[in-house]
Amino acid sequence: MRALRERLGASFTALGAVFGNADLRRVQLALAGSDIGAWAGTVALSVLAFEAGGTTAVGLVLVLRTVPPALAAPFMGTLADRFPRKRVMVAADLLRAALVGGAAAILFGGWSVYLVYGLVTVVSVLGTAFRPAQAALLPSLARTPDELTAANVASSTVESVAAFAGPALGGILLAASSPAVCYSVCAATYLWSAFLLFPIRESRPAPEEPAPTSFLRDTLAGAQTLVSSRSARLVTALITAQVAVGAMLFVLLVPLAFEALKTGEDGFGGLLGALGVGGVIGAAVALGLVGRRLSTGLTVGVFLWGAPIALLPALKSQAGAVVLLGIVGIANTLVDVSAFTLLQRAVPEDVLARVFAILESLVFAATALGGIFAPLLLSLVGLDWTLVATGLFLPVVAVASWRAIARIDAKEPAPALMLQLLDGVPFLKPLPAQVLERLSARLARMDVAAADSIFRQGDDGDRFYIIAEGIVDIHVDGQRAPELGPGDYFGEIALVRDVPRTATATASTAATLYALEREDFLAAVTGHAPSASAADAVASARLGALRPVVTAPI
């Protein structure tokens, strides 16, 4: 019981840190504004299309809102890797606000509804830039790996709440006024999102190599990363499979409510509501993933996403269906949090938005396939067997892939000791959480005996060292400088300034060190402006102290 309390305490502390981090808080609130505006606009567009051309027009609008965004998403993600992600999000918000405001003006003016369809299509395309940029921005704002997981919990919760609040807002506005007024309010939500993002201080590691001059080559880099990374491929495939099943479920809920349960529109709304409520409850469950292996959350989430659907035919009641769909909603949050966090850890930072954009494109495609396949299967085997087949698919996938999922997490998260050591180095502390995790995985343990030499003055600088246990003596030109103990670090001057070793380091006692190779150290530190500045300041201070009198190491 005590361990459980400690675990829950750590989880809620991490979630509290998310909202205590001003930049992360602003990103979450901006996501809320963006999603609520998108959902309310979807409701307004559906009503507008139905009134103008019936179900045919609704079908046309569905195609316009899915096919162009699916094709455009990889290119929009490239923008979020080429330019500061905050700026991409702000630009997407401002452009969407202008276009949705234009749609409102068209409706107020009584002009052609087809102009509205065109503007909304462009709005949907712009939306594919916002979410990948947001997902790729989070790791650079999170201060610890646990905070990153908690930030993804918060994002998933925001999306679940927006799935309620957006349609509710749209429905209220349409009942009280008109689609034109609804679009005006949607424009305001996008402006609200942009306003929240403006003060964020984004700092990103610079790319290790110059970006390709060809925009197409730059875009294809995201696909190449997915092809070459087994971890990213697996996580992306699981998300895509879950989305396809979700699209099938959405189609099947209509006959379930109207034909099987005989509950009509109210029953259908209740079933959708159960998914949303489950998603919000799932946020509390997903907090248990903070500090734990995310593979467990992903495997359990994928399994529980499908299993309750397969049980729906056995419970011919609205209450039973609500409970089962609530479990699906909880599972949805588990999948979102664990999968997104694993992707953020597995994918290199410089292509992260492009990978999320490809995922966005796959989500659109999976949604379309699920929407097409469900009616076909329904006509062949009927509702009950379609629900069973749809529901069993994901549990089978989860069981078949759990070993592969566990292997992803075997590398993540980084050991707490190594993260603690890195966090104790002032110029490494500002690095984004996912960069610190990668560095921790690169740290090599060194056990040295008393009086063993670590390096000598004049040697080439090849490593940076952090002391976990023991004492290290530093000598410059034969004169002794202050000794270093656990938590201290040395070796950075030769790396930062590209000069030979300026001191000799010898173990005074038996010591345990953790070493970082030159290439890994420089790629992380010089690619992140605050860390580069801090490292240069440390090197300058130590070199300055060496000039008048030998008082400092390295």
The portion of residues forming beta strands comes to 5-15%
Q: Helical residue percent?
A: over 70%
List low-confidence stretches: 1-12, 205-212, 546-554
- What overall form do the CA principal axes indicate? elongated
What's the count of strands?
8
- How far apart are the first and last residues' alpha carbons, in Å? 48 Å
Major sheet attributes: 4 strands, antiparallel
Q: What value does the Rg take, in angstroms?
A: 27 Å
With strands numbered from the N-terminus, the spatial order across the biggest sheet is 1-8-3-6
What is the helix/strand order?
A: HHHHHHHHHHHHHHEEEEEEHEEHH
SSE class: alpha+beta
Number of helices: 17
Mean pLDDT: 79
